[in-house]
Amino acid sequence: MSTEVPGKFDHKNYLASLTRRPGVYRMLDAKGEVLYVGKARNLKNRVSSYFRASGLASKTMAMVEKIAAIEVTVTSSDTEALLLEQNLIKELRPGYNIQLRDDKSYPYILLTEGDKYPRLAFYRGSRKRAGRFFGPYPSAHATRETLQVLQKVFRIRQCEDSYFKNRSRPCLQYQIKRCTAPCVDLISPQAYQQDVHYSTLFLQGKSDLLTQELTKNMESAAEAEEFERAAVIRDQIVDLRRIQEQQYVANQGNDADILAAALEQPYVCVHVIYVRAGRIIGSKGFYPRFKLADSGEEVLSAFISQNYLGDGKSATIPAEIIVSGKLEDAESLQAALCYVAGRKVKLAQRVRGHRAKWLELARTNAAQSLQAHVSDKHNIKNRFIKLQDYLKLDYQPTRIECFDISHTGGEGTVASCVVFDDNGAVKADYRRFNIKDIAPGDDYAAMEQVLDRRYTRLSKNEGKIPDILLIDGGKGQLRQAKSVLEKFSLPEICLLGIAKGISRRAGQETLYTDTLNGYREISIPAESPALHLLQQIRDEAHRFAITGHRQRRAKARKQSALEEIPGLGPKRRRELLKHFGGQLQIRKASEAEIAKVAGISKKLAENIYAYLHNN
After folding, report:
1. Which residues pair with residue 206 across a beta bridge?
2. Which end of the chain is more exposed for a tag (fewer CB within 10 A), N or C?
3. How far apart are CA 18 and CA 4, in angstroms?
């Protein structure tokens, strides 16, 4: 059902025929863009509430003024309406709905299957691959911290299979007692599987059972006079008890997420404490955008819907979700959580004992995190104002784009573009560029290529034009940037270069800007907030570039150069490697020697030789 009325929306006629059944409503503006998506147990009552004569918040009234049409979809139940609402929010991303910026998949710990010596690894992505998954964990830090504990106590290998299979002697991890060197058979498969079993019990939260098994095995080893083995198990028990002392353990074996919200409009913080197997394994603060929020309970309802409901979210739903306050739609939320998870999920609002302590901790963290977040936002705005003064701009800059180049000896060159506005980093606008077809190590050509690719789109009105273009480099890089801006007729952008000083220390950078009389050096005191802003943006661009470069370099090194040669399939590659013994020997061989290999024609031998020697 929908209606569109020129000018102001005629809500009276529309509401007269609106159904009272449950469903989802979408509010549209004059351009047909969705302003807000909501759900209702009674569509007529809920939509009518937006058009009452009094009692509306100013931000809600501002949205209502923009409404040109309302569309509804009737559903058979509240749960179905809730699930449909979340699917539409994620698809349409309306401006007045809660927006969670961090939509990455949660990290897990993967235990590989089918290997003689299984591996424990950090994993993020689809869980369709073979293996056992433990988690999800709240952050990469919490995941890696758990892996470090396992590496120290049980010494299960965590190295890549390609590294593991090519060892001829133990690596450093064995020397520092973080691995038992299964790569060179210094531990039997049976003993290694025992350590895998212990690690599995630890990851499942069965700490008491694990300690009992270890104690029993230690006593058995001592009775058999295997004192060295008994000492190793004793040390494992001591390490486990120390870890348990550092954690507040209660309600052993249960998983729970504890949620609390704090508001200081226009800023919102939802703090989540993650409890797995009765152990607090970490916490995380979320700062969603929610223009219509009036209370913490309203924020939590929207957060639970978007964070836990939807495709691929079932694994992230714990057995219990504990929230502060009383949620109006708690019943329908719990029904939807159970439906998505395919099991019983409890949504608790009134708790006692240790769970009440967890909830109070979440409230405290939410308030403190929001205070720090608001303070940081204000500091960033002040830094932009100070920068305007030093650059002598007749307007206040609100958007800065920074570019950096990263490579190792010309290999795997990657350029980064990071974006900051007066609220901080705009990570949705970050971009990486793989640089191609330039001389290795030519930073000027790399800078020209990335700027050309970036501003080709901006010249077509695709994206936002920055107020300041910050280049990690000196006058040479600025010349490249200026030529690109002139090419696309974008001279109004302020050009700024930040070059490291001779000592390469923070605070001793040299700043250049483009003027009518050439490139002018700018002096900003080391203690100035404006310089701190530029340093922060430059460091973020460097981090983003070097991360992309390392990923590209690692990917290139995993792939054999032979795989890129046209006409050279797997069978012929095997024959080449069998004949010469390795890629280094193939590179040293002549065309005639390569042609002697079975299945390699003279023409293919010429192509192989030419490719390997960059001819």
Report:
1. none
2. C
3. 14
CB 158 within 8 A of CB 120: yes
One-letter-per-residue 3-state SS of 116-127: CCCCEEEECCCC
SS3 514: strand
E strand residue ranges, 183-319: 256-264, 267-276, 279-286
Q: What is the pLDDT of residues 523-545, one digit of tens each?
A: 888 778 888 888 889 989 999 98
pLDDT of residue 550: 83
Q: What is the pLDDT of residue 1?
A: 43
What type of residue sits at position 433? F
Q: Residues near 512 by Cβ (< 8 Å), separated by ≥ 6?
A: 474, 475, 478, 496, 497, 499, 519, 520, 521, 522
In this structure, are residues 447 and 405 in contact, taking their beta carbons and an 8 Å threshold?
yes
DSSP for 233-247 reads: HHHHHHHHHHHHHTS
Its sign, for the CA torsion 11, 41, 33, 55, is positive
Whether the CB-CB separation of 537 and 400 falls below 8 Å is answered with yes
Residues in the chain: 615
Tokens coding 20: 């009272």
Q: In CATH terms, is domain 561-612 a member of 2.40.50.140?
A: no
Residue-range domain boundaries for the chain: 2-92, 108-245, 256-370, 399-554, 561-612
Q: What is the CATH number of domain 399-554?
A: 3.30.420.340
- Distance spanning both ends of the chain, measured CA to CA: 67
Q: How many CB atoms lie within 10 A of CB 97?
A: 25
- Rounded mean pLDDT, 172-195: 88
What does the block give as tokens for 465?
């034009």
Neighbours of 15 (CB within 10 A): 16
**In this structure, which topology does domain 2-92 adopt according to CATH?**
GIY-YIG endonuclease (3.40.1440)
Take residue 533 and report the two structure tokens written for it: 């802003």
Phi, psi of 233 (to 5 degrees): -65, -40
Highest mean pLDDT, choosing among 38-52, 88-102, 157-171: 38-52
Reference 431, options 416, 412, 449; nearest CA is 416
249-263: b (≥16 Cβ within 10 Å) or e: bebeebbbbbbbbbb
Among 94, 6, 87, 77, which Cα is nearest to 42's?
Answer: 77
Domain range 256-370, CATH architecture: 2-Layer Sandwich (3.30)
* 224-260 pLDDT tens trace: 787 887 887 887 777 666 665 544 434 445 688 899 9
